[in-house]
Amino acid sequence: MTVAEPYRIKSVEPLRMSTRAEREAAIDRAGWNTFLLDSDDVYIDLLTDSGTNAMSDRQWSALMLGDEAYAGARSFYRMRDAVRETYGFEHMVPTHQGRGAEHLISKILIKEGQYVPGNMYFTTTRVHQELAGGTFVDIIIDEAHDSRAQHPFKGNVDLGKLEALIGQVGAANIAYVNIATTVNMAGGQPVSMANLRATSELCHRNGILLWCDATRAVENAYFIRQREEGYADTPVRAILREMMSHVDGVTMSAKKDALVNIGGFLAMRDESILQRARELVVVYEGMPTYGGLAGRDMDAIAQGLREMVDDDYIAHRIYQVRYLGERLLDAGVPIVEPIGGHAVFLDARRFLAHLDQELFPAQALAGHLYVDSGVRSMERGIVSAGRDPHTGANRKPALELVRLTIPRRVYTDRHLDVVAESVIGLHQHREDIRGLRMVYEPPTLRFFTARFEPL
User: Fold this and answer.
1) Residue 115: domain span
2) Average pLDDT, 10 consecutive residues per value, the chain (455 residues)
3) Which of 99, 380, 409, 446 is catalytic?
4) Any catalytic annotation for residue 380?
5) Which residues contact 213 (CB under 8 A, 6 or more apart)?
6) Is residue 295 domain-resident?
7) Which position among 158, 213, 248, 257 bears the catalytic label?
8) Could you tell me if 302 and 425 lie in one domain?
9) Which of 58, 72, 82, 379 could be joined to 363 by an S-S link, Cβ 3.0–4.6 Å?
10) Are residues 301 and 318 in the same domain?
Protein backbone atom coordinates (compact mmCIF):
# COMPACT_ATOMS: atom_id res chain seq x y z
CA MET A 1 0.00 0.00 0.00
CA THR A 2 1.28 3.47 -0.87
CA VAL A 3 1.88 5.66 2.17
CA ALA A 4 1.61 9.32 1.17
CA GLU A 5 3.45 12.15 2.89
CA PRO A 6 1.55 13.28 6.03
CA TYR A 7 2.32 16.93 5.20
CA ARG A 8 1.97 19.54 2.44
CA ILE A 9 4.91 21.36 0.83
CA LYS A 10 4.71 25.17 0.90
CA SER A 11 8.35 26.17 0.52
CA VAL A 12 10.90 24.73 -1.90
CA GLU A 13 14.66 24.95 -2.42
CA PRO A 14 15.78 24.95 -6.07
CA LEU A 15 18.36 22.32 -7.06
CA ARG A 16 21.10 22.72 -9.66
CA MET A 17 21.34 20.09 -12.40
CA SER A 18 24.98 19.41 -13.34
CA THR A 19 26.54 17.66 -16.33
CA ARG A 20 28.57 14.47 -16.10
CA ALA A 21 31.72 16.40 -17.08
CA GLU A 22 31.11 18.84 -14.23
CA ARG A 23 30.64 15.98 -11.77
CA GLU A 24 33.80 14.24 -12.93
CA ALA A 25 35.75 17.45 -12.28
CA ALA A 26 34.04 17.92 -8.91
CA ILE A 27 34.85 14.41 -7.63
CA ASP A 28 38.49 14.85 -8.66
CA ARG A 29 38.67 18.16 -6.77
CA ALA A 30 37.15 16.40 -3.75
CA GLY A 31 39.74 13.63 -3.82
CA TRP A 32 36.99 11.05 -4.41
CA ASN A 33 35.62 11.80 -0.94
CA THR A 34 31.94 12.71 -1.08
CA PHE A 35 32.27 14.63 2.19
CA LEU A 36 34.53 17.11 0.37
CA LEU A 37 32.07 17.89 -2.43
CA ASP A 38 30.48 21.34 -2.44
CA SER A 39 26.74 21.24 -1.80
CA ASP A 40 26.15 23.29 -4.96
CA ASP A 41 27.61 20.42 -6.99
CA VAL A 42 25.16 17.85 -5.54
CA TYR A 43 21.73 17.08 -7.01
CA ILE A 44 20.24 14.62 -4.49
CA ASP A 45 22.08 14.68 -1.17
CA LEU A 46 21.92 11.37 0.69
CA LEU A 47 25.20 11.89 2.54
CA THR A 48 23.49 11.94 5.93
CA ASP A 49 20.22 12.46 7.77
CA SER A 50 22.07 14.51 10.39
CA GLY A 51 20.90 18.12 10.41
CA THR A 52 19.53 17.83 6.88
CA ASN A 53 15.86 17.61 7.86
CA ALA A 54 13.05 19.94 6.80
CA MET A 55 11.54 21.68 9.82
CA SER A 56 7.79 22.15 10.15
CA ASP A 57 5.89 25.42 10.23
CA ARG A 58 5.51 24.98 13.98
CA GLN A 59 9.27 24.55 14.39
CA TRP A 60 9.96 27.68 12.34
CA SER A 61 7.43 29.48 14.52
CA ALA A 62 9.16 28.18 17.64
CA LEU A 63 12.39 29.86 16.52
CA MET A 64 10.73 33.22 17.13
CA LEU A 65 10.19 32.30 20.79
CA GLY A 66 13.91 31.79 21.38
CA ASP A 67 15.19 33.40 24.57
CA GLU A 68 18.82 34.29 23.87
CA ALA A 69 19.75 34.99 27.50
CA TYR A 70 23.25 33.71 28.28
CA ALA A 71 22.05 31.88 31.40
CA GLY A 72 18.70 30.52 32.54
CA ALA A 73 16.93 31.04 29.22
CA ARG A 74 13.25 30.13 28.97
CA SER A 75 14.14 28.08 25.88
CA PHE A 76 16.25 25.72 28.01
CA TYR A 77 13.32 24.93 30.29
CA ARG A 78 11.01 24.30 27.34
CA MET A 79 13.57 21.88 25.90
CA ARG A 80 14.10 20.21 29.30
CA ASP A 81 10.35 19.73 29.71
CA ALA A 82 10.09 18.20 26.23
CA VAL A 83 12.88 15.74 27.07
CA ARG A 84 11.12 14.78 30.30
CA GLU A 85 7.82 14.30 28.48
CA THR A 86 9.20 12.35 25.54
CA TYR A 87 11.98 10.26 27.08
CA GLY A 88 11.19 10.25 30.81
CA PHE A 89 14.58 11.51 32.04
CA GLU A 90 14.50 14.07 34.82
CA HIS A 91 17.80 15.77 33.95
CA MET A 92 19.21 17.13 30.71
CA VAL A 93 22.25 19.10 29.59
CA PRO A 94 22.13 20.55 26.05
CA THR A 95 25.11 20.17 23.70
CA HIS A 96 25.92 21.56 20.27
CA GLN A 97 25.30 18.12 18.73
CA GLY A 98 25.50 14.42 19.57
CA ARG A 99 29.26 14.13 19.72
CA GLY A 100 29.31 16.83 22.38
CA ALA A 101 27.21 14.52 24.55
CA GLU A 102 29.47 11.56 23.66
CA HIS A 103 32.49 13.59 24.77
CA LEU A 104 30.91 14.50 28.10
CA ILE A 105 29.76 11.01 29.06
CA SER A 106 33.09 9.48 28.03
CA LYS A 107 35.01 11.88 30.26
CA ILE A 108 32.56 11.38 33.13
CA LEU A 109 32.33 7.58 33.19
CA ILE A 110 35.52 6.16 31.65
CA LYS A 111 38.71 5.55 33.60
CA GLU A 112 41.98 4.69 31.86
CA GLY A 113 42.07 1.01 30.95
CA GLN A 114 38.34 0.32 31.27
CA TYR A 115 36.20 -1.42 28.65
CA VAL A 116 33.10 -0.04 26.98
CA PRO A 117 30.97 -2.81 25.42
CA GLY A 118 28.49 -1.83 22.74
CA ASN A 119 26.26 -3.26 20.01
CA MET A 120 28.69 -2.43 17.19
CA TYR A 121 30.93 0.61 17.10
CA PHE A 122 30.04 4.04 15.84
CA THR A 123 32.83 6.25 14.55
CA THR A 124 32.64 9.33 16.78
CA THR A 125 31.47 7.34 19.82
CA ARG A 126 34.46 5.02 19.70
CA VAL A 127 36.91 7.90 19.20
CA HIS A 128 35.63 9.67 22.33
CA GLN A 129 35.80 6.41 24.28
CA GLU A 130 39.38 5.77 23.16
CA LEU A 131 40.49 9.34 23.84
CA ALA A 132 39.15 8.92 27.39
CA GLY A 133 41.29 5.78 27.84
CA GLY A 134 38.60 3.18 27.16
CA THR A 135 38.56 0.15 24.88
CA PHE A 136 35.48 -0.62 22.81
CA VAL A 137 34.26 -4.25 22.74
CA ASP A 138 31.66 -5.38 20.22
CA ILE A 139 28.85 -7.41 21.83
CA ILE A 140 26.28 -7.34 19.03
CA ILE A 141 24.75 -10.60 17.79
CA ASP A 142 26.64 -12.30 14.96
CA GLU A 143 23.79 -11.82 12.48
CA ALA A 144 24.50 -8.07 12.48
CA HIS A 145 27.73 -8.68 10.56
CA ASP A 146 25.93 -10.58 7.79
CA SER A 147 24.15 -8.32 5.31
CA ARG A 148 21.90 -11.17 4.13
CA ALA A 149 20.73 -12.40 7.55
CA GLN A 150 16.99 -11.83 8.00
CA HIS A 151 16.92 -11.44 11.80
CA PRO A 152 14.27 -8.78 12.63
CA PHE A 153 16.39 -7.27 15.43
CA LYS A 154 19.99 -7.41 14.23
CA GLY A 155 20.91 -4.65 16.67
CA ASN A 156 20.41 -6.95 19.68
CA VAL A 157 23.11 -7.41 22.29
CA ASP A 158 24.53 -10.92 22.51
CA LEU A 159 24.02 -11.48 26.23
CA GLY A 160 26.50 -14.37 26.21
CA LYS A 161 29.24 -12.09 24.86
CA LEU A 162 28.47 -9.49 27.52
CA GLU A 163 28.45 -12.06 30.33
CA ALA A 164 31.74 -13.48 29.06
CA LEU A 165 33.35 -10.03 29.09
CA ILE A 166 32.12 -9.36 32.63
CA GLY A 167 33.57 -12.69 33.73
CA GLN A 168 36.86 -12.00 31.95
CA VAL A 169 37.62 -8.43 33.08
CA GLY A 170 35.27 -7.94 36.05
CA ALA A 171 32.33 -5.57 36.34
CA ALA A 172 34.50 -2.88 37.95
CA ASN A 173 36.56 -2.67 34.76
CA ILE A 174 33.53 -1.97 32.58
CA ALA A 175 32.87 1.77 32.46
CA TYR A 176 29.34 1.32 31.14
CA VAL A 177 27.51 -0.52 28.39
CA ASN A 178 26.55 1.62 25.39
CA ILE A 179 23.63 0.41 23.30
CA ALA A 180 22.60 2.14 20.07
CA THR A 181 18.96 2.19 18.98
CA THR A 182 19.02 1.74 16.00
CA VAL A 183 22.51 0.50 15.02
CA ASN A 184 23.85 2.73 12.27
CA MET A 185 26.89 0.71 11.20
CA ALA A 186 24.83 -2.49 10.96
CA GLY A 187 22.49 -0.86 8.46
CA GLY A 188 20.04 0.99 10.71
CA GLN A 189 19.04 -2.22 12.49
CA PRO A 190 16.81 -2.14 15.60
CA VAL A 191 17.01 -3.63 19.10
CA SER A 192 14.02 -5.52 20.48
CA MET A 193 12.32 -4.47 23.69
CA ALA A 194 12.93 -7.94 25.13
CA ASN A 195 16.65 -7.68 24.44
CA LEU A 196 16.83 -4.15 25.83
CA ARG A 197 15.09 -5.34 29.00
CA ALA A 198 17.37 -8.36 29.38
CA THR A 199 20.50 -6.27 28.78
CA SER A 200 19.34 -3.80 31.42
CA GLU A 201 18.73 -6.57 33.95
CA LEU A 202 22.16 -8.09 33.30
CA CYS A 203 23.93 -4.74 33.62
CA HIS A 204 22.14 -3.65 36.77
CA ARG A 205 22.59 -7.06 38.39
CA ASN A 206 26.33 -6.47 38.03
CA GLY A 207 26.26 -2.80 39.04
CA ILE A 208 27.01 -1.57 35.49
CA LEU A 209 25.39 1.51 34.00
CA LEU A 210 23.50 1.07 30.71
CA TRP A 211 23.67 4.06 28.42
CA CYS A 212 21.82 4.50 25.14
CA ASP A 213 22.65 6.30 21.92
CA ALA A 214 19.09 7.46 21.30
CA THR A 215 19.83 9.30 18.07
CA ARG A 216 17.31 7.25 16.08
CA ALA A 217 15.38 5.64 18.91
CA VAL A 218 12.01 6.65 17.44
CA GLU A 219 12.77 4.58 14.35
CA ASN A 220 13.69 1.71 16.68
CA ALA A 221 10.38 2.14 18.50
CA TYR A 222 8.51 1.89 15.20
CA PHE A 223 10.27 -1.36 14.32
CA ILE A 224 9.29 -2.76 17.73
CA ARG A 225 5.69 -1.88 16.92
CA GLN A 226 5.97 -3.61 13.54
CA ARG A 227 8.01 -6.68 14.47
CA GLU A 228 7.71 -7.52 18.18
CA GLU A 229 4.77 -9.39 19.61
CA GLY A 230 2.52 -7.37 21.89
CA TYR A 231 3.24 -3.89 20.49
CA ALA A 232 1.17 -3.72 17.28
CA ASP A 233 -1.44 -1.42 18.82
CA THR A 234 0.91 0.58 21.05
CA PRO A 235 1.65 4.21 20.07
CA VAL A 236 5.27 4.86 19.16
CA ARG A 237 5.37 7.52 21.86
CA ALA A 238 4.61 4.90 24.54
CA ILE A 239 7.09 2.39 23.10
CA LEU A 240 9.86 5.00 23.20
CA ARG A 241 9.12 5.77 26.87
CA GLU A 242 9.23 2.06 27.70
CA MET A 243 12.56 1.68 25.87
CA MET A 244 14.05 4.56 27.83
CA SER A 245 12.82 3.11 31.13
CA HIS A 246 15.44 0.36 30.78
CA VAL A 247 18.50 2.64 30.47
CA ASP A 248 20.25 5.03 32.85
CA GLY A 249 20.73 7.84 30.37
CA VAL A 250 21.17 8.78 26.74
CA THR A 251 23.38 10.66 24.37
CA MET A 252 21.29 12.30 21.69
CA SER A 253 21.96 13.99 18.40
CA ALA A 254 18.79 16.00 17.90
CA LYS A 255 19.85 16.48 14.28
CA LYS A 256 18.26 13.11 13.46
CA ASP A 257 15.03 12.04 15.22
CA ALA A 258 14.20 15.53 16.51
CA LEU A 259 13.94 17.02 13.01
CA VAL A 260 16.29 19.97 13.48
CA ASN A 261 19.47 21.23 11.85
CA ILE A 262 21.69 21.49 14.94
CA GLY A 263 21.74 20.41 18.57
CA GLY A 264 21.85 17.50 20.97
CA PHE A 265 21.78 16.65 24.66
CA LEU A 266 22.89 14.35 27.44
CA ALA A 267 20.02 13.11 29.62
CA MET A 268 20.13 11.05 32.80
CA ARG A 269 18.48 10.17 36.11
CA ASP A 270 21.55 10.32 38.38
CA GLU A 271 22.11 13.78 39.88
CA SER A 272 25.81 13.10 40.43
CA ILE A 273 26.26 12.51 36.69
CA LEU A 274 24.22 15.65 36.03
CA GLN A 275 26.49 17.67 38.30
CA ARG A 276 29.64 16.42 36.58
CA ALA A 277 28.07 17.10 33.17
CA ARG A 278 27.27 20.67 34.20
CA GLU A 279 30.87 21.16 35.28
CA LEU A 280 32.31 19.85 32.01
CA VAL A 281 29.81 21.42 29.63
CA VAL A 282 31.00 24.85 30.77
CA VAL A 283 34.52 23.94 29.65
CA TYR A 284 33.67 22.39 26.28
CA GLU A 285 30.24 23.60 25.14
CA GLY A 286 28.79 26.55 27.08
CA MET A 287 26.62 27.29 30.09
CA PRO A 288 24.57 24.32 31.39
CA THR A 289 21.43 26.08 30.16
CA TYR A 290 22.54 26.50 26.57
CA GLY A 291 25.39 24.05 25.92
CA GLY A 292 26.53 25.61 22.65
CA LEU A 293 23.02 26.23 21.30
CA ALA A 294 21.09 29.42 20.62
CA GLY A 295 17.79 29.68 22.47
CA ARG A 296 15.89 29.47 19.19
CA ASP A 297 17.54 26.11 18.45
CA MET A 298 16.44 24.73 21.81
CA ASP A 299 12.86 25.80 21.08
CA ALA A 300 12.98 24.12 17.65
CA ILE A 301 14.25 20.92 19.34
CA ALA A 302 11.46 21.04 21.92
CA GLN A 303 8.86 21.20 19.17
CA GLY A 304 10.66 18.54 17.10
CA LEU A 305 10.72 16.10 20.02
CA ARG A 306 6.94 16.17 20.07
CA GLU A 307 6.53 15.90 16.29
CA MET A 308 8.92 12.94 15.92
CA VAL A 309 6.66 10.57 17.89
CA ASP A 310 3.61 11.20 15.72
CA ASP A 311 2.56 7.77 14.43
CA ASP A 312 1.65 8.98 10.93
CA TYR A 313 4.94 10.82 10.49
CA ILE A 314 7.18 7.93 11.54
CA ALA A 315 5.16 5.42 9.46
CA HIS A 316 5.85 7.48 6.34
CA ARG A 317 9.48 7.98 7.33
CA ILE A 318 10.10 4.23 7.46
CA TYR A 319 7.96 3.60 4.36
CA GLN A 320 10.10 5.96 2.27
CA VAL A 321 13.32 4.16 3.18
CA ARG A 322 11.66 0.81 2.45
CA TYR A 323 10.43 2.11 -0.93
CA LEU A 324 13.99 2.74 -2.12
CA GLY A 325 15.28 -0.51 -0.65
CA GLU A 326 12.60 -2.62 -2.29
CA ARG A 327 13.23 -1.05 -5.69
CA LEU A 328 16.88 -2.07 -5.41
CA LEU A 329 16.12 -5.57 -4.14
CA ASP A 330 13.68 -6.15 -7.01
CA ALA A 331 16.53 -5.33 -9.43
CA GLY A 332 18.96 -7.72 -7.75
CA VAL A 333 21.13 -5.05 -6.13
CA PRO A 334 22.80 -6.37 -2.94
CA ILE A 335 21.82 -4.36 0.14
CA VAL A 336 21.70 -4.89 3.89
CA GLU A 337 18.57 -6.80 4.87
CA PRO A 338 16.12 -6.34 6.47
CA ILE A 339 15.86 -2.73 5.25
CA GLY A 340 16.73 -0.42 8.14
CA GLY A 341 15.32 2.78 9.51
CA HIS A 342 17.22 5.79 8.19
CA ALA A 343 19.03 4.55 5.10
CA VAL A 344 19.43 1.87 2.50
CA PHE A 345 22.92 0.36 2.69
CA LEU A 346 24.49 -1.02 -0.48
CA ASP A 347 26.66 -4.08 0.17
CA ALA A 348 29.79 -2.96 -1.68
CA ARG A 349 31.56 -6.24 -0.92
CA ARG A 350 28.99 -8.14 -3.01
CA PHE A 351 28.32 -5.25 -5.42
CA LEU A 352 32.02 -4.99 -6.35
CA ALA A 353 33.17 -8.54 -5.70
CA HIS A 354 36.14 -8.04 -8.02
CA LEU A 355 37.72 -5.44 -5.67
CA ASP A 356 39.74 -6.32 -2.56
CA GLN A 357 38.67 -4.46 0.58
CA GLU A 358 42.05 -2.67 0.71
CA LEU A 359 41.06 -0.99 -2.57
CA PHE A 360 38.20 0.80 -0.77
CA PRO A 361 35.26 -0.58 -2.77
CA ALA A 362 32.57 1.33 -0.86
CA GLN A 363 34.46 4.60 -1.27
CA ALA A 364 34.82 3.92 -4.99
CA LEU A 365 31.14 3.01 -5.38
CA ALA A 366 30.02 6.21 -3.63
CA GLY A 367 32.22 8.25 -5.98
CA HIS A 368 30.88 6.54 -9.10
CA LEU A 369 27.28 6.99 -7.96
CA TYR A 370 27.91 10.73 -7.69
CA VAL A 371 29.54 10.91 -11.14
CA ASP A 372 26.66 8.95 -12.69
CA SER A 373 23.74 10.95 -11.30
CA GLY A 374 24.80 13.70 -8.89
CA VAL A 375 23.60 11.61 -5.93
CA ARG A 376 25.83 12.02 -2.89
CA SER A 377 26.12 9.05 -0.54
CA MET A 378 28.80 7.98 1.93
CA GLU A 379 31.13 5.10 2.71
CA ARG A 380 30.64 2.91 5.77
CA GLY A 381 33.39 0.30 5.55
CA ILE A 382 37.14 0.05 5.87
CA VAL A 383 37.67 3.82 5.62
CA SER A 384 35.15 4.57 8.37
CA ALA A 385 36.54 1.76 10.54
CA GLY A 386 39.97 3.44 10.66
CA ARG A 387 43.14 1.89 12.02
CA ASP A 388 43.82 -0.20 15.10
CA PRO A 389 45.46 2.23 17.56
CA HIS A 390 47.88 -0.46 18.75
CA THR A 391 49.00 -2.04 15.45
CA GLY A 392 48.29 0.74 12.97
CA ALA A 393 46.72 -1.78 10.59
CA ASN A 394 43.46 -1.05 8.80
CA ARG A 395 40.45 -2.42 10.63
CA LYS A 396 38.53 -4.61 8.20
CA PRO A 397 34.85 -4.75 9.14
CA ALA A 398 32.73 -7.57 7.80
CA LEU A 399 30.34 -4.97 6.38
CA GLU A 400 31.66 -2.81 3.52
CA LEU A 401 28.74 -0.49 2.83
CA VAL A 402 27.58 2.59 0.96
CA ARG A 403 24.92 4.45 2.91
CA LEU A 404 22.03 6.07 1.02
CA THR A 405 20.69 8.17 3.87
CA ILE A 406 17.20 9.65 3.56
CA PRO A 407 16.77 13.11 5.14
CA ARG A 408 13.42 13.58 6.89
CA ARG A 409 10.63 15.38 4.99
CA VAL A 410 13.03 16.53 2.26
CA TYR A 411 12.80 14.34 -0.88
CA THR A 412 9.87 12.80 -2.73
CA ASP A 413 9.65 9.25 -4.01
CA ARG A 414 10.45 10.60 -7.49
CA HIS A 415 13.86 11.67 -6.19
CA LEU A 416 14.33 8.16 -4.86
CA ASP A 417 13.42 6.75 -8.27
CA VAL A 418 16.37 8.70 -9.72
CA VAL A 419 18.62 7.20 -7.03
CA ALA A 420 17.37 3.69 -7.70
CA GLU A 421 17.83 3.97 -11.47
CA SER A 422 21.41 5.20 -11.04
CA VAL A 423 22.34 2.43 -8.59
CA ILE A 424 20.75 -0.23 -10.79
CA GLY A 425 22.63 1.07 -13.82
CA LEU A 426 25.94 0.98 -11.96
CA HIS A 427 25.23 -2.55 -10.81
CA GLN A 428 24.68 -3.65 -14.40
CA HIS A 429 28.14 -2.29 -15.32
CA ARG A 430 29.86 -2.96 -12.00
CA GLU A 431 32.94 -4.62 -13.54
CA ASP A 432 33.94 -1.21 -14.94
CA ILE A 433 34.39 0.28 -11.45
CA ARG A 434 38.02 0.45 -10.31
CA GLY A 435 39.39 0.71 -6.80
CA LEU A 436 41.09 3.67 -5.13
CA ARG A 437 44.26 4.40 -3.24
CA MET A 438 44.40 6.79 -0.29
CA VAL A 439 46.70 9.77 -0.87
CA TYR A 440 45.93 11.74 2.33
CA GLU A 441 44.93 10.28 5.69
CA PRO A 442 44.17 12.33 8.82
CA PRO A 443 45.02 10.81 12.22
CA THR A 444 41.41 10.35 13.38
CA LEU A 445 37.96 10.02 11.78
CA ARG A 446 39.65 9.76 8.41
CA PHE A 447 36.44 9.23 6.44
CA PHE A 448 35.57 12.92 6.83
CA THR A 449 38.66 14.39 5.14
CA ALA A 450 40.79 11.62 3.59
CA ARG A 451 41.61 11.97 -0.11
CA PHE A 452 41.84 9.27 -2.78
CA GLU A 453 42.66 8.79 -6.42
CA PRO A 454 41.50 6.09 -8.84
CA LEU A 455 43.82 3.20 -9.61
Assistant:
1) 57-307
2) 89 94 98 98 98 97 97 98 98 97 98 97 93 97 97 98 98 98 96 98 98 98 98 98 98 98 98 98 97 98 98 97 98 98 97 97 98 98 93 95 98 97 98 97 95 97
3) 380
4) yes
5) 98, 122, 125, 178, 179, 180, 181, 250, 251, 252
6) yes
7) 213
8) no
9) 379
10) no
